[in-house]
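Bug #77: duplicate submission created two jobs. Keeping one. Sequence:
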Amino acid sequence: MKRFSCLLVLALVAPAVARWSVDLEAGPVFSGYNDVRIPGDAGTLFSLTEDLHARTALGYRFRLSKTFGDRHWVSVLAAPLRVESRGTLDRDVLFAGVRFSARLAETRALYRFDS
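Kept job's structure:
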C-alpha cells in the first residue's frame, strides 16, 4: 500500500514552556499492491489491485502534541485509512471460509488500516 500525502500541513505553536502543536495532513492514497489470503495456509491468494480495481482514496492524519520543557512531549495521533476495491473475479476465491464464485457478481473489498 503506497501512501502519498502533502496537500495540507497546518501547525500551530503557542510560545511558552509548555507548547501545543497541531498537525493535519491530507492527500490521495494509491494502492500499489495489496495481496491477501485468509487463512494464510488454505485461502486463495488474490490481489485487491490486480484482480479487483482499487479506488483512489483520501487519506488524512491528525496529531495533537504538547511539549514540556526542552525534551519531553506527549502526542495523540489519528490516521484512519480505508481503500475500497471492486470488480469481478476471474476465478473462484476462498476467503475467510467463504467461496466467491468467478464472474457471478461484483466483488467489493475494503482495506482498512486505522492508526
